[in-house]
Amino acid sequence: MIEKKCEICVQSKQVMGKDTEVTEVEYPGRFVDRGEKKYLSYKRSTEDGEVDCLLSYSKGVMIMSQQGGVRSKMEFIPGKTTSNPYMTPLGNMSIPVYTRGMSFETRDDVINVMIDYDIATGDAIQTLINITARLL
Q: How many Cα atoms within 13 Å fall on the side-chain side of residue 91?
């Protein structure tokens, strides 16, 4: 098992109808490599408080979990739609997510993650997330 501190940059682009939102945020985090399963973790602040974020990857399946003021667990499998729990202080819901594509690549001291998916609400929210982790 390998465990290292890292600097994580999360870039997100969401398209909702005619509106587009782009964000880029950096966080201190951790990378853990347990052979077939790999993890990136970091904390982020929201209006509902601090949220622990965990991204795991294994054998073509990626899972993004959040614990804190917001709790969710999204499973990404290319070409598949998954049903995902999303819990907020205002209530719980199940969110269908269709994964168009994803990748998890490690090169030297850099990890690159890409997740391209749709949140299937009334008007689908097209989302592209790129995560770069630089190991320290």
A: 3
d(CA 76, CA 82): 7
HSE-up of residue 126 (Cα within 13 Å, Cβ side): 8
Query: For the residues of 41-99, what is the DSSP string, one character each?
Result: EEEEEETTEEEEEEEEEETTEEEEEEEESSEEEEEE-TT-EEEEEEEETTEEEEEEEEE
Question: Quick check: helix, strand or coil at residue 39?
Answer: strand
Distance CA 68, CA 52 (A): 6
Contact in structure between 102 and 110 (CB atoms under 8 Å): no
Token code pair at residue 16: 């909702």
Contact 125, 119 (CB under 8 A): yes
pLDDT tens per residue, the chain (136 residues)?
A: 899 999 999 999 999 889 999 999 999 999 999 999 999 999 998 777 789 999 999 989 999 999 987 789 999 999 999 999 888 777 888 889 999 999 999 998 999 999 999 987 667 789 999 999 999 9
